[in-house]
Write a structure and sequence with these properties.
CATH architecture of the largest domain: Roll
Number of helices: 18
CATH superfamily of the largest domain: Dipeptide-binding Protein, Domain 3
Distance between the termini: 20 Å
Helix content: 25-40%
CATH topology of the largest domain: Dipeptide-binding Protein, domain 3
């Protein structure tokens, strides 16, 4: 994370938000955040699948294993203090941490873990696939996850690395809920689903104290949290949809953090009294060629294209504060990310590659692009730089739904898109960018390799599966680094940028943690000096 500060301009004018005209200061023991929270559909961790609800789940619920607030790249023990892996028998046995209680005061038991996982599988809501990919079904679940005396035994069905399984168990739907409290609030067999969408039953650093959709969400500190009580008593998320209003609230002192300001508004903050956190996010942005278009099925064309994007120029001007240069399929901020950026804007080199390979130029390529900023502006810059080498992009703006539908049908020629992982394991993106075992039109899979008709070399397919099954965590990470490097050099798509988020804060806010995904936002360490 990078920080910079900006000096205070003259006096700020108060905004009459609640009838009062004077500038307000937030309470010393409360963090107030201005944020667009109308994306929340569900707060039950068995159903939650939105950005804001993911953040809430991370702060309200614990998992057997979870990412560390102090270093979001580290997977550490949560409700489990230790575990033993038996890769041969595809089994992991977790020893539960003693003395942990839910917010209700009920002890956290192995039975609560089993109930929580079984509940996700039984309800079958949006995020259930993350757990069911371990081979769990309603029919076999009781044979796959079992409670013992202070232990939970997890079995999985598939040739997976234990590290992959651990990352799945650190994902949002693996949050552990209080069975006794949840089932006391069951209605019509819903296993407490309706109740958990407006209440909480976790053991995390905070409990859900109040929630009014598209208005406010309040978290109360858990003073008995096993990792230590949060530094502040509560966190309030105020729904503020307008970025300009967020900026004004921050400058007035009505909020401590503004989450959704534009780069222009961030740049407009006074220097004194405020600071800005810049946090890399998990989305990677790329251009891909569809190899069903014969002229595009040419390695020399792919190689030259990597040198026709002004990565530094775009990231320092048009995309400043929104994206940063990144050229690998796994985003930085996660273990196993490749951060090397070997390609620079070099049209002379691109022309030489094309000339040496005897590529017939010029060629005209239709480029599908989302019809909103910054994508249309990015496309125009890239159109100009590619034209220098005789590759003429015809920009075709479209709606997100329209472009995705066309892309899934393999009917595009070239497309500019972005991709993010479903959970924090490099296989989540490796399967999309480095694996395609069947390139036939009938073999649809939701990957960028298949959608661009790239018949991945069998050797790369084998490396992708080998990384998925590798049991040594360090070796596995290195395998993904090498896989990213190979894709970086040989694939018919060109990863250009990683999304970034700029968060405006009052200068007295310390300890705010915003990792590369919404599952890695932590409030426990925040304090106000």
């Amino acid at each position: 994370m990078k920080m910079f500060t900006r000096p205070l301009a003259a006096a700020l004018i108060a905004l009459p938000l609640t009838g009062a005209m004077a500038v307000a200061d937030t309470p010393d023991n409360v963090l107030v955040v201005a944020q667009n929270i109308d994306d929340i559909v569900a707060l039950d961790p068995a159903q939650a699948y939105e950005f804001t609800s993911s953040e809430i789940a991370t702060n309200v619920y614990d998992r057997l294993v979870q990412y560390d607030a102090e270093d979001t790249t580290k997977l550490v023990g949560g409700l489990a203090e230790s575990w033993e892996m038996d890769a041969e028998n595809k089994t992991i046995t977790f020893t539960m941490r003693d003395g942990v209680t839910f917010h209700s005061g009920n002890p956290v038991r192995p039975e609560d873990v089993v109930f929580s996982f079984k509940r996700v599988v039984a309800l079958g809501k949006n995020p259930a696939f993350i757990l069911t990919q371990l081979g769990w079904t309603p029919e076999n679940f009781d044979e796959m996850v079992m409670a013992g005396d202070g232990t939970v035994t997890v079995k999985y069905d598939g040739d997976f690395s234990p590290a992959f399984v651990m990352n799945v168990l650190a994902a949002r739907p693996a949050s552990v809920v209080d069975e006794l409290t949840v089932m006391a609030n069951e209605v019509d067999g819903d296993m407490g689903n309706a109740w958990l969408n407006t209440n909480s039953a976790g053991s995390g650093a905070f409990s859900l104290q109040a929630y009014r959709p598209a208005e406010i969400l309040r978290l109360a500190a858990n003073e008995n949290y096993w990792q230590g009580a949060p530094k502040l008593d509560s966190v309030i998320l105020r729904h503020v949809a307008e970025a300009a209003t967020q900026q004004l609230l921050l400058q007035q002192g009505d909020v401590d953090i503004a989450r959704n300001m534009t780069p222009e508004q961030v740049a407009g903050l006074p220097e004194e009294g405020f600071k800005v956190g810049t946090f890399p996010q998990a989305t990677v942005h790329f251009i891909a060629y569809n190899l069903k278009t014969p002229e595009l099925d040419n390695q020399a064309l792919w190689d030259a294209s990597r040198y026709l994007i002004d990565y530094d120029g775009l990231s320092s001007t048009l995309l400043k504060g929104q994206m940063e240069k990144h050229q690998a399929f796994w985003p930085k901020g996660f273990p196993g990310a490749l951060e090397e950026t070997p390609f620079d804007y070099d049209p002379a080199k691109a022309k030489q590659i094309l000339e040496d390979a005897g590529v017939e130029l010029p060629i005209t390529v239709e480029l599908d692009v989302f019809n909103f900023a910054p994508f249309t502006d990015m496309a125009q810059s890239i159109q100009a730089s590619f034209a220098e080498a005789g590759i003429n992009f015809e920009i075709t703006p479209g709606t997100t739904a329209g472009i995705i539908t066309k892309y899934r049908a393999r009917e595009h020629e070239a497309v500019m898109l972005y991709w993010g992982p479903d959970f924090n394991d490099p296989h989540s993106n490796a399967k999309a960018f480095a694996y395609n075992a069947d390139n036939s039109d009938e073999a649809y899979i939701s990957t960028t390799t298949w959608r661009n008709a790239w018949a991945v070399p069998e050797e790369m397919n084998e490396k992708t599966i080998a990384a998925l099954t590798e049991s040594d965590p360090a070796k596995r990470e290195q395998m993904y680094v090498e896989l990213q490097r190979e894709v970086q050099q040989t694939a018919p798509f060109f990863i250009m940028f990683q999304g970034t988020l700029q968060v405006g804060m009052a200068e007295n806010v310390e300890g705010y943690v915003h990792g590369a995904s919404s599952d890695l936002v932590f409030y426990r360490l925040v304090e106000k000096s």
